[in-house]
Write a structure and sequence with these properties.
42% of the residues lie in helices and 12% in strands. With 193 residues, the protein is α+β, with helices and mostly antiparallel strands.
């Protein structure tokens, strides 16, 4: 049993901001990308009971203490839960296809997002792994790399040139100035002097 006041290292693995509130403790936390914080086990436990709390802890943040994970979720985490960016890079570049397929099957969503991002930025040269990504998660790495490598050629249409200017076909009707009030009016219209 873990001491409720024990401090546990928690890391944001998501490539964005992750935040949560634990109202009964008066806690409002924000984690920036790759930021780590020491959080009490009590706070993590309370968060896990809140709607979406368990998903935040399993899918976006990494709890580094295996005992805390076991106590909180009554599960043993898969190794992919603890993968760092360097681990994902090694998996993409030198890992076996079977290791890669296992990762696609067992990794939390944040690691899958990391795989997609790195597959394009590295780029991933292993066509079997590209095909595995496409088949497992529906992301076409080859197409994404093509789009990334497409350069903007600078050709734009000049909007000014494409605007058709209208020309008059006839002279406008001349305004007749009358000093008398037209029939049916109760007042004389205002005229400019």
């Amino acid at each position: 049993m873990i001491d409720r006041n024990a401090m546990i290292k928690v890391i944001n693995k998501f490539n964005g901001i992750v935040g949560y509130d634990v109202p009964e403790l008066g806690v409002n936390r924000t984690f920036y990308p790759k930021e780590s914080k020491n959080i009490s086990y009590n706070e993590l436990e309370r968060l896990s009971y809140l709607p979406g709390g368990e998903s935040i802890l399993k899918d976006y943040l990494e709890i580094t203490d295996e005992n805390a994970i076991s106590e909180l979720f009554n599960i043993k985490t898969e190794p992919e839960y603890h993968y760092s960016e360097n681990d994902v890079k090694a998996l993409l570049t030198t890992g076996s296809l079977d290791q890669f397929l296992d990762c696609l099957d067992f990794a939390p969503p944040v690691i899958i997002d990391m795989i997609k991002d790195m597959a394009v930025t590295l780029p991933l040269n292993d066509m079997a792994k590209r095909e595995a990504i496409k088949n497992k998660i529906g992301f076409d790495v080859t197409k994404a790399i093509e789009i990334k490598n497409t350069k903007y050629d600078g050709e734009t249409e000049n909007v000014e040139e494409n605007v058709t200017h209208s020309t008059r076909r006839a002279a406008p009707i001349k305004k007749e100035e009358t000093s008398t009030t037209p029939s049916g009016r109760r007042y004389k219209p205002i005229t400019k002097e």
